[in-house]
């Protein structure tokens, strides 16, 4: 990509959006095993792949450094850090803590209108076919977003979103068949919210989110992620 073409590409997106796009792209490279731990990340190649200039690439990599996905080697550049099974479990543990608290708060303040919205999402989810991966993922996100909004705790919801963004969206697509199996959990959550049962809502949400760790680990093991890392070490 020429410099002029890169500048034109950059103009259509906000300055804040560009590093986020870079970070999302590199996270997926690391979690999918397309780059191995210790492998150097070429700024020019990432810039070309994402369609940005080198500046947002560096900003995106610095953000990933703070998340532990990359390391900065002085005078040499950025390298991919290892992404382990424990990392997956830790990410889901953080999400479970925040999501369960939000569910508990939602149980004591959710409005009839918000309950109707949740019911509508749940009905659509139950009617979706198991082969509609993207639709199942979108409905799952809509379900959790509705609960988070009902909790009335914007800061907690923001922190939960930041944790969830560390997992690339395509992995939720890989888990879509299993997401369909979570319909029972979602129905139980709606029932707890109808009753205003904060303890039950907290328990169900915590268990529901942690189950995602086992599901994603199964996907990553099947993909050969850690086998490739072990052979490269």
TrEMBL record:
Keywords recorded for this protein, A-Z: DNA-binding, Transcription, Transcription regulation
Name the UniProt record assigns to this protein: GntR family transcriptional regulator
All residue ranges annotated as the HTH gntR-type domain in the record: 16-83
Segments crossing the lipid bilayer: none
Source organism of the structure: Actinomycetospora endophytica
Pfam family, one: GntR
Classification via PANTHER family: GLUCONATE OPERON TRANSCRIPTIONAL REPRESSOR, TRANSCRIPTIONAL REGULATOR, GNTR FAMILY
């Amino acid at each position: 990509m020429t410099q002029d073409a890169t500048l034109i590409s950059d103009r259509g997106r906000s300055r804040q959006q560009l590093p986020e796009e870079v970070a999302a792209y590199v996270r997926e490279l690391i979690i999918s095993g397309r780059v191995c731990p210790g492998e150097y990340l070429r700024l020019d190649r990432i810039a070309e792949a994402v369609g940005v200039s080198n500046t947002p690439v560096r900003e995106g990599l610095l953000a990933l450094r703070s998340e532990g996905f990359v390391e900065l080697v002085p005078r040499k550049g950025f390298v991919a850090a290892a992404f382990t099974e424990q990392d997956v479990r830790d990410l889901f543990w953080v999400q479970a803590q925040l999501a369960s608290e939000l569910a508990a708060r939602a149980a004591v303040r959710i409005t009839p209108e918000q309950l109707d919205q949740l019911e509508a999402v749940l009905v659509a989810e139950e009617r979706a076919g198991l082969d509609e991966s993207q639709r199942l993922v979108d409905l799952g996100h809509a379900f959790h977003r509705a609960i988070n909004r009902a909790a009335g705790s914007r800061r907690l919801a923001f922190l939960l979103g930041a944790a969830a963004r560390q997992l690339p969206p395509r992995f939720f697509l890989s888990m879509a068949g299993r997401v369909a199996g979570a319909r029972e959990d979602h129905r139980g959550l709606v029932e707890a919210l109808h009753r205003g049962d904060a303890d039950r809502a907290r328990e169900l949400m915590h268990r529901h989110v942690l189950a995602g760790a086992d599901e994603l680990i199964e996907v990553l093991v099947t993909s050969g992620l850690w086998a490739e890392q072990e052979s490269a070490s």
